[in-house]
Amino acid sequence: MSRGLRVQVLVVGGGINGAGIARDLALRGVSCALVERRELGSGTSWASSGMIHGGLRYLQKDPEVTLHSCVDSGAIQRIAPHLVFRIPFLMPVFPDDPIGPELVEIGLEMYDRYQPFKNGRPHTRLRREEALRLEPALSPRVECAFTLDEWGVDAARLTAANALDAAERGARISTHTEVVELSREGGSGRVTGARVRDRLTGESWRIDADLTLNATGPWAPRLAALAGTSVRLRPAKGIHLVFERRVSNLAIYARGIDGRDMFTFPHEQNSMAGTTDDDFYGDLDRIDVTEDEIAYVMQAMERSIPSIRRHRVIHTTQGVRPTLYGFGQSEDELSRDYEVIDHGAEGAPGFFTIAGGKLAAYRLMAEDASDRLCASLGVREPCRTATTPLPGGEGALDVEALARRFRVAPAAVVRLGFRHGLRSARVLAPAEGRPTPPRTVCACEPVLDAEVAHAARVEGARTLGDCVFRARLGVGACQGASCAGQAAGLLADALDWPAERCAAELSAFAAERWRAAAPALGGRHLAAFEIHRHVFLGARGFAAEAASRPEDPAVQAEDPTP
Amino acid sequence: MRAVVIGGGLAGSCAALELAARGAEVALVSAGPGSTALSGGTLDVAAASPLRRGGLPLADAADGRPLAPLRRLLVAHGNAAHPYAALLRGRSAALEVEEARAALDAWLAPSGLRVVGSVDETRWLADVRGAVRAADLAQSGSGEGDLASAEEIALVDVPGLAGFDARPALRMLAAELASIGLSRTLRLATLELPAGLAEHAAAPARLARRLEDPAAQAALVPAAARLGAPRRLLLFPPVLGLERVDRVLAWAADATGCRVAELVGAPPLALAGYRLDRALSAALARAGVEEFAGRVASIEEDAGRAAAVRAEGGERLALDALVLATGRFVGGGLLERDGRLAEALLELPLYDLAGRRVDGVRPRRLVRRDYEGEQPLFAAGVRTDAQLRPLAADSKPRLTNAFVAGDLLGGFDPARDRTGLGVALLSGRRAGIEAAKC
């Protein structure tokens, strides 16, 4: 079957940049299509810390980056207040730190000047006893500590919200869809869109576009090569450890053995710790977390929080930053700036790439990129993304009223509100009038069945794995052992899956949770995965196995021998 | 004769009950519910696994004819590393299983829990997701739900019940039946809970408890009566009683006029394991086995024999025979110590499926990317001689009066080959018999 689509702009890549740009363009009335090879926000965006901080770290070398980030952090808070949460940071100073409290405070005083842009409070200095009272997990070796304000965001939901808004304004969003080839005009070499293929159905079709934007993040060089052009990045891998519960009340700075700054911060029911920043030349589709990376992060965290090893790491996230190319002594010294590249001069007019940048400044980058594209299209509409609320961000949610109306626990509504804001009522609406209230599918977070169904019916989630990003399904302590079976049933209902598909989805989901959890496997986590394996392998039926793919010898061959 | 059993799951309980039946004075130390308490209702001596790799086959590889569980048991026995190899050497598998089944049935019967099925014939049971299990032994509740013996099967939907969705389960079950070549009429029957019960649907254990109450049963009769139809097998989600499934089953059969059974459970809806755990505890108490709650700190040795067990609280239990039924990671028999895989109490050497030593190895090194494939970490356990005495690295018994039962035994991956509780049952009983000779 073939179908065609004609748009002004084809955006390739559904991370935060691609989704942000699609939304920006849609708001300006530009018709666009977005194709994403996997799920929205499942690559670098998901692997990010989700901090929309100003980047205290960049203040010395890249004050521009800090300024952009702080200003845009404020903007994101206005358009998506539900997705953003304040993260008070504690910066402990230890006697053996290379920089003493006085110097640290000078830096923080400078940073205070940027705080108003992002609604942050100025720093405070705490005496040792005050710091320990505020955060009992802190190492008693602490000399004094500083507090400062940063903000976090659910990056996958931020991506989804941008894509959703774009779609509601006419953009065509296709997930699990890859570019097979770029269309070229004979003679001029102009890029006129692409032939794309749905990786789930195998269906392929053409998208004709005046302009094609490469927003594939670390994959940008690969897509650029399809147009005979080149994009040079210095890809940098970063990992995070996710703990089974909140290990601290506040976010806490930590110092790596090499002097790098890291931190741990509470997010939803968990704490995250990271990140690393290492040159990466491996296979982007197979980024593995290594023992060394985990040891490096744990060692840093242990210096600030001595009890950290008592907590269970339930999974890791890993991704590759599309850092702009450049030589530097250490990866951290490299710029977090970005670039919009017009490949016209390389013989590929109509083809653009956006590279580099930070999550915190995604909106600003999208504005800039859209300005460039609009200039090329002759569109004069101004950018409206800084003031137009994202879906769900139109106002404040009345949690109590919603909880009463739909007979669900307020805690579940609060969680739902974090992801859907004012639209939470819409998520719950199908349950209205039913004899029984919405049920909790995932007790770890909690996630309601209504949210899983909404992801599939309304938001365009297409696989069980998509629900990890849409609804944080299966990322809690049990890694999906309790919820995946039921969620698969809900999706089967919503998307009319045959039983075999349902089982294949479960199998893929388990394998993906295993991939995320196995690198940090140890301690009490071993028992959790003994159960996990019993649940997923035990749930396998005969029809499912008959329909599953035959074993892949390549997968086995690459396994290490103990 | 004084015996100490460490571990209160199916393996440890069977060992303790067998010891008590042979006149031993038995103490059982249990750290709390483990794998047994998480089980779903099947006992799986040699259940067929649908997994193409690593499972016990459903059909004979040569002629494609279905294998009886007993034949599958012998397939497992043929794998020299599998605990069945040592357990069945020189014994009749059929007799060994039947004796164990009858013993367990007698131990559980006073709690209203029976062991149904046999290894002569596959028992086709459906689980809460609609997947079919090719089971052999099962506890009552799910055990009565043999799909092959029914003409019409109805899944009972209980609106609002946490952890169960009847419609996708029905769809899955239809595909499953087609794939194993069973043609049956499938239906959905909805059981609307009256006020007073409906509030408990979000907490299945509480609902199960309420269903044991005759007053609640009476209130449910009108709704239950609507589920019935001639020649129909009604499959309920596994909430028919928290402890006394026999009474709730009898009531449901009466109220609906149908054959009734439960679906095999799976987390988060798995009360069958809880029932089994409670019934075993009751059997231990009846047999005069003294149960200690807590963890064992160390085992005192004397001249190649175990002499006493010291609890974490400091108590010392002197012994003539010791049974280790501590399980794997869930039970605490295996753990990561100083970053390395170790057996918790005696630092016994551990082996994977291929017979490689794996104790002292970092757990991370014992896992493979292929989730469903062979994972040495989850097949690791101790090796024993034919009497189930744990072997030291030199292949001689580590202690002459210690015996191992259950998941702590290595050489099999219960999640893949589905012999977990079967191994617990057969090895637990055998360990008790051997220990009683000390």
Task: For this entry, give a set of tags.
A: 562 residues; alpha+beta; nine-stranded mixed beta sheet; eight-stranded mixed beta sheet; 21% strand; globular; disordered C terminus; B: 438 residues; alpha/beta; five-stranded parallel beta sheet; 11 helices; 29% helix; 18% strand
Describe the overall structure.
The complex is a heterodimer of chains A (562) and B (438). Chain A has 562 residues and is an alpha+beta fold. Chain A has 19 helices and 19 strands. In chain A, 58% of the residues are buried. Chain B is an alpha/beta fold and 438 residues long. Chain B has eleven helices and 18 strands. Chain B has helices at 10-21, 69-78, 83-88, 93-108, 166-180, 204-210, 214-225, 245-256, 272-286, 414-417, 420-436, and strands at 2-6, 25-30, 115-116, 123-126, 132-135, 138-139, 152-157, 185-190, 232-236, 259-262, 290-293, 296-302, 305-311, 316-318, 321-324, 334-337, 340-343, 402-404. In chain B, strands 11-2-1-15-18 form a five-stranded parallel β-sheet, covered by helices on one side. Chain B has a four-stranded parallel β-sheet with strand order 8-7-9-10, sandwiched between helices. A three-stranded antiparallel β-sheet of chain B has the order 12-13-14, with no helix packed on it. Chains A and B meet through helix 15, helix 16, helix 17 and helix 18 of A and helix 5, strand 16 and helix 10 of B.
